[in-house]
Write a structure and sequence with these properties.
Layout (H helix, E strand, L loop, with lengths): L4 H7 L4 H8 L15 H13 L8 E5 L13 H13 L3 E5 L5 H11 L3 E3 L6 H9 L3 E5 L2 H8 L3 E6 L13 E5 L24 H18 L4
Parallel strand pairs: 1-2, 1-4, 2-3, 4-5, 5-6
Length: 226
């Protein structure tokens, strides 16, 4: 896969988990990966909910705005996140912004647009605290990043946005949906892109909102109120 773009981008339909199983000679039967939170992360998650007065019947949608430097082309737009957050708030979701140090200015700009419509979880949390923040959410909207894998490992509902990376390598295990851009040049794994618009810039927020609302509905049908 590392030597052939055609094989990696077009031919392969196996998830990375299945590939690893086969590499070490084990049969793959859909085994998931799990994250066992530390006591501190569990407490941090609980304290986040208490701090922002999130009730047991409220649905928290986490918008993870960042991605690593290796493939910065995975990042979605400020406008897209702002429109998504506003629409989800109108649908009675509690919206929480997630990010790391690279997203400090980006999330601050979102807060300027959205004000008290959203919760800012901060951009200087430890990895352990970040896991607790993801755990405080019910649905995670994210690109192909660390937050995606944490959400999968914590069995969260996921809206996973794929542009320049391979969606088929990620298994959501029946708890989410993928939004895959349809540009003919994607996936590409490029660090920079000179197209205007890029595949991520062209993604319509209405599609993300629609998908997130479906995941909220699925979650509520799975866990109806008492």
């Amino acid at each position: 896969l590392g030597l052939s773009d055609e094989l990696k981008y077009r031919v392969n339909q196996k998830s990375a988990t299945q590939i690893v199983f086969e590499m070490i000679g084990l049969n793959y039967s859909g085994e998931e990966y799990d994250i066992a939170l530390s006591d501190y992360a569990v407490r941090f998650s609980r304290e986040m909910k208490e701090k922002y007065q999130i009730g047991p019947g409220e649905c928290v949608v986490g918008l993870n705005t960042g991605c690593g430097d290796a493939f910065a082309t995975k990042k979605w737009t400020l406008e897209g996140f702002a429109e998504t957050a506003a629409a989800l708030r109108s649908a009675s979701a509690r919206v929480m912004l997630l990010g790391g140090p690279r997203e400090k200015e980006f999330n601050a700009a979102l807060m300027q647009i959205l004000g008290n419509q959203v919760i800012d979880s901060g951009c200087h949390n430890t990895v352990e605290e970040f896991m607790g923040i993801v755990d405080a959410c019910d649905v995670i909207v994210t690109a192909d990043t660390m937050a995606l894998h944490i959400a999968i490992g914590l069995k969260k509902r996921v809206v996973a946005i794929f542009g320049p990376t391979c969606h088929q390598e990620i298994d959501l295990f029946g708890r989410g949906e993928k939004i895959v851009t349809d540009f003919p040049c994607s996936p590409c794994y490029l660090k920079t892109c000179d197209k205007n618009p890029t595949c991520m810039m062209a993604l319509d927020s209405a599609k993300v909102v629609e998908t997130a609302l479906r995941q909220m509905k699925a979650l509520r049908s799975q866990n109806p109120p008492d």
